[in-house]
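Changelog-adjacent note: as of this version, every example in the card shows the full chain rather than a window. The one below runs 282 residues end to end.
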Amino acid sequence: MSQRPPAPPSLQELRKEIDAIDEGMHRLLMQRGEIIDRLIQVKQTQEVGSAFRPAREAAMMREIVQRHRGILPLDTVESIWRVIISTFTYVQAPFSVHADISASEAAMRDSVRFNFGFTVPYVAHFSAQAAVEAVAKSKGDLAMVSATSSRTPWWLELEADGAPKIIARMPFIERADHPAALPVFAISRVADSALVTEVETFSVRVSGWNAEVARALSPLAEIVAVPDTAFDGAALLVSVTGATSIDKIRAALIEAGASVRSVALVGSHATRYTVPPTGPKS
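Full-length structure tokens:
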């Protein structure tokens, strides 16, 4: 006589399993907080300013994406992880996020809340310039500005030694229907040892800027340009990956008929993780 298959678990049993997992996650978060408290004492983070660690965060984010499986949306995992990291960073060294809302207030607010949650203070500004200036005057704050367009060359404020720099490009996970899809740069002061330099960003000032020069550069790098009609030139923010170099950008500008007036490194960030249309592996 064959045995009957075991009865499926009851709803009550499944809910008990979920409750146990929820309790375990909460206890792990509290345990993480205890470790962060010890970390503050060891590293005296509050005395040295920014606690941002872009290179470590990018590496951890890649690991999360690569191991993610199942029905839970990757966006949810990304946001939960970002809020946990940002909140514990805030606990180590309190900071505010200064956001440029001139392009889209709703989209920028979504990006800030997706990446930093509601514990970190949010300060809105009506221009990228104002957001960057606020960070420059702070001890360890962070600015969020558009990564694809600008009315003013705010990045000129990042050229000087000791000035804040671009430290990240968000969203880190790139996909067409991302819930916080606004392309933004994060700007702050970070120790050189904490930076990730897979993509370097340069402030390039040129004379002789025109549509033909812009077309010559477009295959080589991502560029934000603010024309300067007074000098027949432009201020460029150029993002250079390992596939090219700033020397190639300089040569392309000259070949296209422009003159390079100055070049300054103003930051760096991780290569974005692109999720294919079919989504991550399941």
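Structural remarks: The chain has a mean pLDDT of 89.
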